[in-house]
């Protein structure tokens, strides 16, 4: 086979040629590798960055703030999307008819808008609307006005408005809670925005998104123990009562005495959290939790309960309150209406200071103090609400005879409305004092025993006298139900020291149905200025309406039914429907 | 080893490279197709995400609207003024015939 091949004559090649070729190839390799090194190693960061800039986008995944709802799921605070219209002034000014149309849609004066844009002609970005609904923004954008754009944002809405304003609180412009539960529960409510890195093509479509990503964490929804129906009722009646009595303010608290859940908590003066201007005044204060006051006569049942518990007195005991005043050292305790020799029921129903002081002195400072302690007067409420006032109850070792006597009828100590509600819930709940709760998710703390069940039921029977004929608060009575309660007419501390003559707080606190209570309610009217100032005249009627409504809404059966047998002639409504529709709880 | 050598050097010497080239082309097309499908799905996913976001927004707005319309003050006003309803403050027996 090899013979078939042409026999080339081999010529010797000079050595330099071989080296030249190898050298050239080698150079080529060095250049290529060098360039590769430069791009891959030296300039890598820069090039990757430039590439990413053109294709990789970071998309923000919004983390929504949780809603606040009442116990039946009605929203009290919601985040909803809004749009903010912005414009490039120079571009928009070029077509005046568009300026006119945009101004009309935004409800602004066209001339004002034009001047507004002219003054900001050099800017590239200017907001021309407040937060508006996406539908409205759609309408503005559909004008296709040059240089008009829209930006999506979130705004916080409070559908219940003023009704639950102080409880819910509000968020600031940055979307963080500033007052009330919005502030207290900021950590749970706040959502955390996530991010997703994606590769986009030229037309903006996402073509790859399995790059790094961080999930958004939505805020948790917060369920309150508040029942918006009762809250509304309390708000409406309180507002009317404050106006009727020309008072400075007031508050209503309704709680479930068996579980300690707060069903309604309304304060006046109020404010509308949706209205930014409204937020600045004192209306945002939740007086039921943040304001302490001297409880006055409302502590008398607690004092009597302690006296019964210790066995110093019996429900049938008599106390001589003649002649209507009683000297303790330099202090003279007075009764407005001297009653002479009274039993405990009359003592409470007529609210005798002399009687209370005598019981207090008979028990002694330590027993009075420890009684109040057992009703939680030395303990915070643990409501978790910002600005909760601490109770002030000095130690009995600092009490003299005078302090013991005044403490017996509720002066010289300071409590919030919640403390009184909690203490009365103990009497309502057969001596077991529940911890009050505002959040449905709050852990249920086992109740503490304040007094024995026997004493608690004896106390309720004694307190029924307050709303019966001859009591101080007949107007707190609710037809069909047995109500037990106590009035308080507290003289406020004057600015100059001592007690003011004309400034009072009128209080009524009570429970229903008295034989087996489900609800405890407190009404306080601050400085009524229209003549009446007795708790039984000012606060008791509010208690009656609110609690009657609450009992109806919660379907608490009446204890004694005196049903009229024939149609009543006088107040026949114009139409047949007599009740407001009760909405079924959602399931 | 010998058979392999035969395969390459024998008559079917071009068959294996051709088959391999064919397979390479097929797999290249498959890669293109998968990539395309991936992009379509990613695009769909993205569309779904924005749809979800939009529906969430709508839900929030509907809740707000519902809350505004069913605000107790409004319901009460309508009930009292337009429908002539009252709250019974005691047990009232009303005859069923006007």
From TrEMBL, chain A:
GO-annotated biological processes: cell wall organization; division septum assembly; FtsZ-dependent cytokinesis; peptidoglycan biosynthetic process; proteolysis; regulation of cell shape
Coiled-coil spans in chain: none
Protein's pathway: Cell wall biogenesis; peptidoglycan biosynthesis
GO MF annotations, alphabetized: penicillin binding; peptidoglycan glycosyltransferase activity; serine-type D-Ala-D-Ala carboxypeptidase activity
Record has Ion transport as a keyword: no
Location of the protein in the cell: Cell inner membrane; Membrane
Membrane topology recorded in Swiss-Prot or TrEMBL: Single-pass membrane protein
UniProt xrefs under InterPro entries: Beta-lactam/transpept, Beta-lactam/transpept-like, FtsI_transpept, PBP_dimer, PBP_dimer_sf, PCN-bd_Tpept
Active site residues per record: 297 (acyl-ester intermediate)
All copies of domain Penicillin-binding protein transpeptidase, residue ranges: 250-548
EC number: 3.4.16.4
Reaction(s) this enzyme catalyzes, per UniProt: Preferential cleavage: (Ac)2-L-Lys-D-Ala-|-D-Ala. Also transpeptidation of peptidyl-alanyl moieties that are N-acyl substituents of D-alanine
A Pfam family: PBP_dimer
TM region positions: 20-37
Disulfide bond found in the keyword field: no
One term under GO cellular component: plasma membrane
Segments forming domain Penicillin-binding protein dimerisation: 61-208
HAMAP family: FtsI_transpept
Family named by the database record: Belongs to the transpeptidase family. FtsI subfamily.
Official protein name in the record: Peptidoglycan D,D-transpeptidase FtsI
Organism this protein belongs to: Stenotrophobium rhamnosiphilum
Taxon lineage: Bacteria, Pseudomonadati, Pseudomonadota, Gammaproteobacteria, Nevskiales
UniProtKB/TrEMBL annotation, chain B:
Keywords from the named record: Cell cycle, Cell division, Cell inner membrane, Cell membrane, Coiled coil, Membrane, Transmembrane, Transmembrane helix
Ranges in coiled-coil conformation: 38-65
Localization of this protein: Cell inner membrane; Cell membrane
Role description: Essential cell division protein. May link together the upstream cell division proteins, which are predominantly cytoplasmic, with the downstream cell division proteins, which are predominantly periplasmic.
Membrane topology label: Single-pass type II membrane protein
Record-given protein name: Cell division protein FtsL
One Pfam family, short name: FtsL
One GO BP annotation of this record: FtsZ-dependent cytokinesis
Gene: ftsL
HAMAP family named among the record's database cross-references: FtsL
GO cellular-component term (any): cell division site
Stored InterPro entries: Cell_div_FtsL
Family: Belongs to the FtsL family.
Chief localisation class: membrane
